[in-house]
Design a protein that fits this description.
heterodimer, A: mainly alpha, Rna Polymerase Sigma Factor, Chain: A, Arc Repressor Mutant, subunit A, 10 helices, 0% strand, globular, B: mainly alpha, rod-shaped, binds zinc ion
Chain lengths: 191, 150
């Protein structure tokens, strides 16, 4: 049993703290990532945009305390994960439960598959698979969903997910396993 | 390991738990390898859909009410310097007004003294020729008066 650990370049603390000085550049660089995670977590564009705003505002206010121990990306994602957790706990927006309709972007995806030479039937099947996966993700617990999205959308490794969520690596694995089991079972039903 | 991967093994595999036995079997067995590929491509499609969905959102851009740190600091400085300038200017203006007023008061006082003197020296026109004969020195002091009285 070996954890999946990808090797990537992590800037040192000095470079990290220097990077945060140009906060406009930080926002430009990391906005898509934070917004994407928020959108996938909340499935509500306005709520996702609002959460991304809050995330960068919090980071901007706390930037003096950023010492570069974690990567800037990890630090921002930590803030975003906490905001997602708070939002879901507060249940004020009821985003995830409100937007149950299949997103129209699945059409874009199946279209792009068709453009890449996939047969129309293959594209339809891919679209159904996607709808099924998104449907399962909707039913996951907040932690399972967060871990699943960080691993399979944001491509973080287990140690990075542990750092972002504050969970132990073993706990991350357990959440990931349960989420994958749910996805696999659902796919078994659709096949 | 000659047994096929169990459904749970597939999930474990993608959760990051891959024993050497699992890896060896997956490398040798087409059936299990195909199952892993299928799951992998599904997860890749999922990732693609999340990216596509996010990128397709109209004008998702930061609209955050902060100012760049440098400009912020510069603005503070400009404000501080402007405030100082206004304070100093006001103070200087007030000070110069005070000085002008003091000078005017001094000039007025001097004028009054002069007028006083002029008035005290004024004599009827008919007596003017006599004025030249009189010395307008200080009057007799009490001491000299006392001396004369002795
Ligand atoms: Zn097999």
């Amino acid at each position: 049993m070996e954890p999946v650990i990808t090797t990537r370049w992590i800037p040192n603390a000095v470079e990290q703290t220097r990077e945060i000085e140009d906060f406009d550049a930080v926002v430009r660089l990391y906005w898509p990532k934070i917004f994407r995670f928020a959108l996938a977590s909340l499935r509500d564009r306005d709520a996702a945009e609002s959460l991304a705003q809050d995330c960068f505002l919090k980071a901007y206010r706390a930037r003096q305390g950023f010492r570069g121990e974690a990567s800037l990306s990890t630090w921002l994602m930590q803030i975003a994960v906490n905001l997602v957790r708070d939002s879901i706990r507060n249940r004020r927006l009821r985003f995830w439960h409100r937007t149950r309709a299949v997103s129209p972007e699945f059409d874009l995806v199946s279209q792009s598959l068709a453009d890449r030479g996939t047969t129309p039937e293959g594209a339809v099947l891919a679209r159904e698979r996607l709808a099924a996966v998104w449907g399962v993700v909707e039913t996951l617990s907040e932690r399972q969903r967060t871990v699943f999205l960080l691993r399979f959308v944001e491509d973080l490794d287990l140690l990075e997910i542990a750092a972002v969520t504050g969970l132990r690596e073993g706990t991350v694995k357990v959440h990931l396993f349960r989420a994958l089991e749910a996805v696999r079972k659902r796919m078994g039903e659709t096949q | 390991m000659n047994e096929h991967l169990s459904p749970e093994d597939i999930s474990r595999w993608f959760a990051g738990e891959r024993s050497p036995e699992l890896e060896r079997h997956a490398g040798e067995c087409d059936e299990c390898s195909a199952q892993l590929d299928h799951m992998e491509s599904t997860l890749a499609e999922f990732r693609g859909s999340a990216y596509g969905w996010s990128a397709a959102q109209p004008a998702s851009a930061p609209r955050i009410a902060w100012r760049p740190p440098v400009r912020h600091t510069a603005q503070r400085w400009v404000l501080a310097v402007a405030s100082m300038f206004i304070l100093v200017s006001a103070s200087a203006y007030w000070h110069s007004r005070q000085q002008t007023r003091a000078a005017e008061m001094a000039r007025a006082d001097a004028l009054l003294v002069q007028v006083d003197t002029e008035i005290s020296r004024a004599v009827p026109q008919t007596m003017e020729p006599l004025v030249d004969l009189v010395t307008w020195g200080p009057g007799p002091t009490d001491e000299s008066q006392k001396k004369e009285m002795r």
